[in-house]
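Exam revision sheet. Question 4 asks you to relate a sequence to its structure. Input first:
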Amino acid sequence: MTTTAMAFWSELSKPDEGSETDDWAPEVIAIWDAWDRMLGGIVAISVTSADVTLSTTQAQYGAIEATGSPAAARNLIFPAKNRKYIVRNATSQDLFCYVTGFSAKKVHVPPGVTLAFATEAAGTPRAIGPQLVRNGGFPSTILHPGKAYSGPGIYFGDDLDVGFARRAAGRMGVCLADSEGRDSIRFNAGADAANPTVAMGASFNDGFYPDTTTTGIAWSNGGSRRGALADGLVVGAPTGGDKGLGTINTAGDYHRNNVRLSFQRSVTLGPYSFAANATGTVAHGLGGVPGMVQQRFTCLTADQGYSVGQVVTNAGYVQFAVDATNLVWRVGAGGVLLFHLGNGAAVAPTTGRWNQHFVVYY
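Answer key, structure tokens:
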């Protein structure tokens, strides 16, 4: 009798048409036994001691239950054939299913989870249904032990790498990914630069976290603190394209490399007398020692070649002394002198035609 291998259950053969009819019985019996195992059979396979490569008969069952008390994660290794399975992990350890020769492509079945998936001769197992968990709910463990990322435990579409996964072994949180270890957003229980609360991109340590230093929001890159937002903006250390460490405070002053930039505040004081020997002390209220004082003479009535509204800065014979609190000013014994706008001669401003103010910069 001649036979031909079955299309999918290729380890079994069916009699060729026209073969001797009295030899068909063994083949037909084997075929129906295989169908019976596939459609209604459940086989329990112990993974207590080691990984298990399914035997020919075990691989014919449509439902497989991994049993036993393994001390670590175990693998079930399936034949390279196009088939569909329902696998239940009845152990306390993670279970991984893959096609022989393709150990890099695994379907993860966490403890207590039942998962339907299909194998292919090309070696790519594909989940074809949601994970079913005893007593309802989601699996408590959905990641390879000790691995940073190895595919989501809740899938979207037909790609095993699209969906939700646990943050990492020993860490709370959830990972949203559209491919393995890439283009991901992770929500973590961490709150530091090495383990940011919200991580983005290919690294677990690129993201945002609450910053206890500034009581604001900080961000990290490569596990290092790069900046923060609180009452102002804190710029990270000078690496890469950064320009320098410092702060930009919207409610205060600008800083570069933690040094305040000068001349950010000013106050105009006056008007004051510009008579000979006139003097005065006035609080400027700038909170530091001013870096510059500008004398301003404003023309009220046309005088010495100047028109109304014109301002003369730093006329002669007025001197200033400053500290963090006060401005002390003194007009020289000869009084204030201007240069005549028309001929350049040194002349005295006419009293009543000018106002003298001092602009203090800090």
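Marking note for examiners. Residues 157 and 343 are 89 Å apart (CA to CA).
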